[in-house]
Amino acid sequence: MTSTSQNAEDLEIVSAPGLSEQLGKLLYDFAVHYLWDKRWFIIALAVGAAIATLPLPDGLNREGMIVLAMSVSATIMFITEPIPLPGVALLIILGQIFILGHDSSAVAKTLWNDSVLFIMGSLMLAVAVVKQKLDRRIAWVIVRITGTKTTRVCLGISVVSGLMASFIGEHTVAAMMLPVGMTLIMLTSDDPKKVRGLAAVILLSVAYGASVAAIATPSGGARNAIMIGYWREFFFDPSNPETIKYLMGYVRWIIFAYPLFLIQLPFVTLILFMTFKPEYKDLSRAVVRLRKQVEEQGSMKRADWVAIFLFVMTLLGWIFLSDSVGMGTIALLGATAFLIAGLVHWEDINSGVNWGVGLLYGAAISLGIEMKDSGAALWVAESFLGLLGPFGIENGIGLWAAISVLTTTIANTMSAGASVAVLGPIMLKVAIAAEESPILIGFVTAVSTGFGYLTVFAAPACTIVYASGYLKVTDFLKAGWKMALTSIIIMLLAASFYWPILGL
Fold this sequence. Notes:
By secondary structure, this protein is mostly helical. It folds into 2 domains: about 15-85, no CATH class; about 130-300 and about 375-500, no CATH class. The chain has 23 helices and no strands.
């Protein structure tokens, strides 16, 4: 048989039954694997389409119905993540253009505001700070202050994590403090089984210390900047001096929220040691090894001091200049200063910053504005109050508690920023309908998103420490529900007694 005839036979074999089998396999793989992997994407679109075609309820027009449908679909995708979250942001933008018929330039203007610039600038600053590698020095400072007793070391870790996270964001601090915790754990024992309880109290001190601090300042988390933006967008009128109270500056937010964070800090250590039993009550062995490593590292370098100086100047800018130039501008100035000083390179920032986060929050805020403008937020708010009415909690502390529990639940299934972006417009309308202060209700909503203690993915700090491999998913549940309950009670007490003193 010649080679030509052999090739012809091979071609015939492939082109007949072989080709059909391959095609069938491809179709099977597509139906079983791809469609199954994307089932929540398909479900989200189907639910949105179903809502959009429902008969209009009283008080809601067709545009509001469509916006509500888009919000429900986006929320399902935020929770299930069938596609990358920046992809959800792109769908929101495209939906506003093609489904709602808005001009693309008008949509673009709603995507970029000072809140989004602040989030992006803070992420850039975070990369610059982490670049300095001060983790072992931080660990050494903590143990020199606290001593070697495990309870005091954990309290010191939660306090340091909290103080830093209140200004530079929980994810940054968790990334910085994780090596601190890991250093102390591994210097105590090389066997993870012998330090299960110790690892739990140390690593969760990092996670929960950073998480409770996320509410303390506007720079503590994206949720805070988003709510500040909503207050400005919904209630501030330059022609009406009475609405100036809705311009929430950096210092004013601190006055309202920082005491809540400070009160929660001791409960972190108390709850963790009530829940877990560390194998070592003293960390002297680890401290001796740590001291040797710090001594080998040498004294503070000029670059370290310059980095500290620039960060302090950025913080002072937030405190004294943010009201006039915007918090986002200050954050960008700080990041630019680190670049100019040569303490961080653009390649570091470009690889270390998740640029999709800015797009995500920008799109979520834009959708929130659509909820307000279309009347969908008001309709949902009135429906929510209607559900609470039979229980007698349509206003006052009962309403605050209901909002807090709802927000905490949602924040443990999706990001805090997304939770505020979705719930913010609704809860601010609830405030108007219930004749409550929009600032108080806004604080209850934003602060409650900081109570993401129950799941690994509820807060960036939880995700980061879980990645260490020392923790189980159940560890977060064991301590998390106690932390969430404690935090809700503290916030309700503040709303009842402290915030009214400040004029709410």
